[in-house]
Amino acid sequence: MIIPWITHRRWNTDNADDTDLETRTDHPPPSESPDLDAEMADTELYTASQWQLMWWKFRKHKLAVGASMVIFALYGLAVFCEFLAPYPLMYRDTAYAYAPPQRLHFFADDGFHPWPFVYRLRGERHPETLRKFYAEDTSQRYPLRLLVRGEPYRFWGLFQTDLHLLGVDPGGTLFLLGTDSMGRDMLSRIIYGARISLTIGLVGVTLSFILGLTIGVLSGYYGGWVDNLVQRAIEILRSFPSIPLWMALSAALPGSWSPLQIYMGITVVLSLIGWTGLARQVRGKILSLREEDFATAALLAGASKWRIMWRHLLPSFMSHIIVSITLAVPGMILGETALSFLGLGLRPPITSWGVLLKEAQNVQAVAFQPWLLTPVIFVILTVLAFNFMGDGLRDAADPYAR
Predict the structure, then answer these.
(1) pTM, rounded to two decimals
(2) Is 245 exposed, middle or buried (0-12, 13-18, 19+ CB in 10 A)?
(3) Tens digit of each residue's pLDDT (9 = 90 or more) over 329-353
(4) What domains can be seen in the chain, in order of their start residue?
C-alpha cells in the first residue's frame, strides 16, 4: 500500500509542467516572506547606531512626539511674533481698556456664515455702579481677514511692514483674549512675550550646561581635593531657598541697566543656580566610567586626561545629558516667570509671560478681568510639553530596554 502511493507522488512530480516548476523556484512560498522580513529587520536593528535606535523608539512615544510638535509651534510663534500678532507690541487703544475677549461668530440674524466674524464692541456705563462694560453692536459685523494690512511694525528690527496674519477691516477690533488696563491686546502681548520667555530658557540652560558639564567632569575625573571643593560649593548653593536667593541676586542688578542688560542679567542669575544638579549627575557618571576598560585602554595608549574626559567618557552618556537639559528648560522658564511676577525680574518695556502676569497681582482685577490670567495657560502648556518630551527622550535614551 505504501509503494503505489510513493510511485504516484513521484509520477505527479515528474509530470509537473515547467511553468509550475518556475513558479515554485522563483517565488518562495508566502510563509517564508515574514521570516525574511524579520531577518532583515533584525539585521538593520543590530547595525543601527545608538542615535538611530533612540529616534526609532522616540517615534513610538506618541505623547512625546505630540509634545515636540507643540514646542516647535511655540518657538515658531516666538520667531514670527511680529507677523502672527494682530497688533504691534506698543499699540494701545485707551477706548477699549479692560475690554473682554471678543467671540468669533458663525451665525447672525440672516443665518449661517461659513467664515467667522466679530461684532463691534460698544462701551457703556452701568447706571448704578458706573462701572464701564462692553456690549456687542450686532448692527456692525467685521469678517476675520487673513494676510491683512494693519498697524506697521519692524520685523526683527530689520525692515518695516504692516502685513499681519489675522485682522479685520478698518474701524473694527480683534481682541480675541481681551485687553489690559491700557487697551493693549492680550493675544498680541502673549505672542510677543513668548520670544523672551522661551529664549531665556534656552540661553539659561546653555550657560548651565556649560558650567555643570565642565565642573562635573573635573570633579568626577580628578577627585581628591577638587571633588571635595566642588561638592561643598554645590551643597552650600543648594542649601539656600530658591526664591530668596533669586531675589537677592536680582536685587543686586543695577537699576540703571537697559532692558537688554536686565534680560542678560536675569539669564545669568538663573544659570548660576541651575548648574548644580547637572554637575552632580555628570560627576556620578564619570565616577562609574573612569575605571572602565575603554578608559584604561585610552590612558595606556598615551591619550591625555583631557582627551579621555571629552572624547571617550562624555560621549558615552551624552543621551542622558540631552534628557537632563530638556527637563531643565521648564525650570528656567518658571524661574523667570516667578521673578518677573514678583517684580524682581524683567521689567517693562520688555514683555514676557511673567511681566504680563504681574498685572494679575491685584485680586480685584482678577475678579473683574479674569482674562489677565491667560498667560498662565501658555506657561503650563510649555512646561507640560517639555516634561512630556523629556519623558520620551528618557525612555529613548535606553533603546534596548523593553
Answers:
(1) 0.78
(2) middle
(3) 888 888 888 878 877 777 778 888 9
(4) 66-77+189-396 (1.10.3720.10), 85-184 (no CATH)
